[in-house]
Amino acid sequence: MIRPYGFLLTLAGFCNMNATQEQPELDLTQPLSIDDAMDLAMNLHHAGHHEDAYKIYSRVLELEPNHPDALHFMGIMAHQRGCDEDAIRLMSHSVDLRPDHAGFRSNLGNLLLDNERFEAAQWQYCQALVLDPDRPDALNNLAVLCKELGRYEEAERYLRQALDLSPDFTDARNNLARLYSRMGRIQEAVEQASEALVREPRSASSREMLGYAYCKSGQFDAAAKVYREWLADEPDHPTAVHHLAACTGQGVPPRASDAYVQSVFDAFSARFDARLANLEYRAPQLLAEAVAACLGAATANLEVLDAGCGTGLCAPLLKPFASRLTGVDLSSGMLNKARARTLYDTLRQAELTADLWQRAAGYDLIVSADTLVYFGELDETMRAAAHALRPGGHLCFTVEALAEGESGDYRLQHHGRYAHSRDYLEATLAQAGFAILTLERVVPRCEGGEPVAGWLALAQRRR
Known about the structure:
The protein is α/β, with parallel strands linked by helices. The protein is built from 21 helices and 9 strands. Strands 1, 2, 3, 4, 5, 6, 7, 8 and 9 form a 9-stranded mixed beta sheet that branches.
């Protein structure tokens, strides 16, 4: 997996869906009108009390099956649970009932975009803007779509319009900074991210974007200042801690923290596959080709682990080899997407190394596509992988490569991922009890239009 610096969608009708607040006091002795029940349900939903909200939405729909608000927010809840087909059905029904509701259309567009239904998403955003041409959220969301499709000039125009309407719209300003970064207009990215932080001084997304823009422009001291100020306000914030180490080289952790990895991939799970496609992501295909070259024709007779499975991009390539296919990942958002593929026999949310230690001789094949770029020290993980493999079993993985001539075992790069040396990989695999069958340079993806140097390793546990 890699860190994608993506756009921020703005949800029109329910902006803080993941907030956890005190539960409102309930007076269950008094009957409620449907309107009062909906107000209560939305307050509960907003506060993170999803089960209680779900019960009320369900009861409203029992009494009034075509209640547009209940359908719409049940759809949002279905999306939060990872059931996007149900969410699309419910939210589409709410739009059919309330075709004049621009917020409903914008939210449905977000959901369609998350599921890479680009034309349908664009239609909903455009209809929202026909209904209300001055909706900055719809303009922002339409810009997100255009950026995903590589239509950068359109995206810039929509974001500029959104900011003309709402200069303090932090999401739109950070999206413009991201767009400029993607377009190579780094100084403009810095300017927009700086302005976003001036307008909302403690915005985590603005701090993250500004630090990233400074790093990309080579202004590492300025980036460090952003992260230190962030930590002064939010001590131990996982993103600030990790990226301060990345840009200074001080206090580098042996691997990215669980909290950091979860926050990154939960946030970007919705459109992760599309973003990797934009980066010409090839790691799953490269791994599958290496496995096939080693093992021969797939016969569906192996216990296979997809280690750091993400959204399940490797699953279609690994399934032909597997009598049983297991996926493990830290991110619940990623696992929800992987589950929707219906290709895994088992999916677990767990830290990879700890999970491997619990599976003695459980697998014939372990495959890991770019998960280990969030690990610096690999010694324990390689030992755990050997422990989890049966004698003669195979481990196949990709990591990023240190630059030619760069010394050291590994380095935490400014974007937050680790790169490793060939000598370190060889030594670590050998010490863990592996015979190296393949260790070759590959290009697992491109970034900023440039190829990313990587290693592909295929090793066999000694019998």
